[in-house]
Amino acid sequence: MEHLVNKRNYEEPLYEIVGKESQSLQFVLMPNQKLLTKTLNIIYASENIEIEDKTEFSQKMKQLWTGGSSLNTIVHNPSDSIGYVNINMCRGNISVSIVT
């Protein structure tokens, strides 16, 4: 993943497509960088990554009944080294946002 690192790392998400038939995106997280995504889309992450679900109980119940979901999970790299998180497509889409 180090080949993706450059000076724009803190302004836009860096990613690499993983797989040929069933594809997912592996996002590079720079030190202290945060990414906002959906909980169900996270497949795996490097060991230094913290994952925090911000969904309230009432929202979880609504999602259960309606099938909807929202960007509700913060993926954070608190370490001094580069980390990664792999995110799967949900209905053909991947939704992420950098948290500042």
Strand content: 35-45%
Sheet with most strands: 4 strands, antiparallel
Oligomer: single chain
Roughly how many Å is the radius of gyration? 14 Å
Structural class by sheet pairing and helices: mainly beta
Shape type: globular
Show unreliable segments.
none
Overall tally of domains:
1
Round the mean pLDDT to the nearest integer and report it.
77
Portion of residues within helices: 10-25%
Distance between the termini: 22 Å
Strand order of the largest sheet: 1-2-7-4
Overall strand count: 8
What is the H/E string? EEEEEHEEE
Number of helices: 1
Would you kindly provide a written description of the structure presented here, covering whatever features stand out?
- Helix content is 10%, strand content 36%.
- By secondary structure, it is mainly beta.
- It has one domain (2-99).
- A 4-stranded antiparallel beta sheet has the order 1-2-7-4, with no helix packed on it.
- It is globular.
- The mean pLDDT is 77.
